[in-house]
Amino acid sequence: MNWKIFQLKYDKQESWAFEQMSYLLFCAEFNNRIGLFRYKNQTGIETEPMEKDGKLYGFQSKYYMTSIADNKNDIIDSIKKAKSKNKDLDELFIYINQELSESTNKSKKKPQYQLDIEQFAKAEGINIQWRVPSHIELQLSLPANKYLHDIFFSLDPNEEDLLNEISKHNENILQAIQTKITIGDKQIKIDRTSILESISKDCQERKNIVISGEGGCGKTATFKDFYNSNFNKIPICVFKANELNVNHINDIFQFDHKFKFTQFLNAYKDEPTKVFVIDSAEKLAEINNNDILRELIQKLKENEWSIIFITRYSYLNDLTFHIKENYLLSYTVIDVSLLSIDELISISEDFNFSLPDNQKFVERLRNLFYLSEYVQHYSSIDRRGNFKEFVDLLWKKRIQNNIVQKDNIHLEREKCIINIAKQRCETGRFYINADNLSQAALYNLRQDEILGYDEVHNGYFITHDIYEEWALDKIVTRNYSNHSNTKQFFDDLGDSLPIRRALRLWLSDQLLDNNKEIESFIQGAFTSNDITQFWKDEILVSVLLSEYSETFFNFFENEIIKNDFELLRRILFLLRIACTDVSAVENIEVIKPKGRGWKEVIALIYKHKSDFFENNLKLVLPVLTDWCNFNKEGATTRHAGLLALSLIQKTETEKNFFIQDKVEEKILEVIFQCIQRDKK
């Protein structure tokens, strides 16, 4: 126990720190784990007394830089005050930072100042119990009190530092997340009480949770409400998924100090309820070292943490597969839905603003992010315009802040966020060093909460996924506008997972707008031998999700069926992994088909059933089953039923045609769904 370290660590705050230590030691001696009540600037004793076995115990903390003898009157005065305020006080512990000196009188043990203090206390009806450095040394050497030694007598980072730095990190991540929409002097607050109650209940039961919803729907804002209500009650640790993309598991816990994962686990080991949050969890797919991620999740599981994954709904299927298959976790899914049209209309009436004329534009305002931006920039919006024009306006208002154009600062702001988004794609890092960018523009973007900054990592991060989406969309759009040939377009984009997702979204938007030029681009890219397969896969997924599917399948039918239906097999694979949602209402395992591509694929299989269907049952039957589970009528469901029925008929008419039991179950399931349709 080195008092010089104590003095160095708490320079000019020694008395306060010694009082904190005295309080913790006093509680530890009496095995008190809930603490003691105290008043601000409490007189006489540091807290209200504690009762044990019919006696009242109190304590005082005395940190002196001069001798105890010189401070005798101060101690006596404090005893007097203690008794006057606590008339039933029996025992008084005096914690002091010096040893009492032995009497200079050889016939006595106790020094005179000790006798005077104890005699005064006895006259007041109080028994003094001294706690001097020799007592404190022993108490701090006990394993249960090691954390106290680390707090007060070690310069190494300790558990208290870790807790404080995690709290600071949480606040940094959540700071820019808005939980209300401000409109004039009023605020729109969406009632998420039922969701918050579900999160609380599941955490208390130590369940893992997947919070899903469309980007901007308020997933993280809803979690922030939970955090604000609970961070003082239970440990909550918040990380962005990209922060877990590290070379060593200890790197995750590098804040102001460098902590180890074992320190993190030990700091919370006695907490009955504790929550580890991974925001933007769909980006776990971008992590380079999955062994680190598996170790992290396994250890959290062993130490009884509840893990909350916050993800976009479009990635829910992939994420839940990994959670179950790779991490072996059970979980519940909580869906944060968009506003209904009726809710949106009601809000517009209550807060006196008009909705756009364009119905697709209105549909996008069910998303709280865009609703917030709509009401904030209401006076500048053309309500007869479309959603794309609205996003272009937001880019100019929010990202560029084009009202201020001195020294082209608006263009520098744009350059900063595009550069940071591009670096994040290329490196996979969450925090991006931006020393080569305009510092004035970076400062302004921080002030506007478009960017955040972390001093420990000396890096900037984009505060909302939608801002990053806008930046990536700009990269794709400008690459397309400037490209001279298709190969150059894809080469300039790079091949990172985020930019591939961005291309998919961009293509989907272009196809939604019936852009004929993009249709020609897709046809050229699809037939080019210079384009790698993963880019063709992204093109295929965009097509399968769009209404352009019908045109595409008609135009490329020969390409799709050639080489023994090689491309059709690839399409069936993509259809089930990239063109689905997961039903969180009925069952997490149920796949819900998404996109026009399903209809076109099943129609093509039906057209070529004699050449393809019977030889590829393992590929086709899951597609038919998934479709019929959610689509009980229509021409596509009829085609699926007829395909399945043809197999049953063939088993009855051809002696050498057999079907395995599991396959037959799938066939009968499809037929059953179709029969239910016909009954209806």
Write up this protein.
With 680 residues, the chain is of the alpha/beta class. Among the domains are: 3-153, Trna Endonuclease, Chain: A, domain 1 (3-Layer(aba) Sandwich); 159-335, 3-Layer(aba) Sandwich (Rossmann fold), CATH 3.40.50; 565-680. Helices cover 54% and strands 10% of the residues. It contains 30 helices and 15 strands. The strands form 5 sheets. A 5-stranded parallel beta sheet has the order 8-9-10-7-11, sandwiched between helices. Strands 1-2-3-4 form a 4-stranded mixed beta sheet. Strands 5-6 form a two-stranded antiparallel ribbon. Helix 11 links the parallel strand 9 (275-279) and strand 10 (306-312). Helix 8 packs across helix 9, helix 17 (409-427) packs across helix 18 and helix 29 packs across helix 30. The radius of gyration is 34 Å and the shape is elongated. The N and C termini lie far apart (82 Å). 34% of the residues are buried. The model is unreliable at 584-588 (pLDDT under 50).
Key features of this structure:
four-stranded mixed beta sheet; 680 residues; Rossmann fold; Trna Endonuclease, Chain: A, domain 1; elongated; alpha/beta; single chain
What class do helices, strands and sheet pairing give?
A: alpha/beta
**Strand order in space, largest sheet:** 8-9-10-7-11
How many helices? The count is: 30
Q: In CATH terms, what is the architecture of the domain at 159-335?
A: 3-Layer(aba) Sandwich
Question: What characteristic shape results from the CA principal axes?
Answer: elongated
What topology emerges from the helices and strands here?
Blueprint: H1 3-9, H2 14-29, E1 50-52, E2 55-62, H3 72-85, E3 91-96, H4 112-123, E4 127-131, H5 133-141, H6 146-153, H7 159-174, E5 181-183, E6 186-188, H8 193-204, E7 209-213, H9 219-230, E8 236-240, H10 261-267, E9 275-279, H11 290-302, E10 306-312, H12 316-325, E11 332-335, H13 341-350, H14 359-364, H15 368-376, H16 387-400, H17 409-427, H18 439-447, E12 451-454, E13 459-462, H19 465-482, H20 486-493, H21 497-512, H22 516-527, H23 533-544, H24 549-555, H25 557-578, E14 580-582, E15 591-593, H26 597-607, H27 609-613, H28 617-630, H29 635-653, H30 661-679
Parallel strand pairs: 2-3, 3-4, 7-10, 7-11, 8-9, 9-10
Antiparallel strand pairs: 1-2, 5-6, 12-13, 14-15
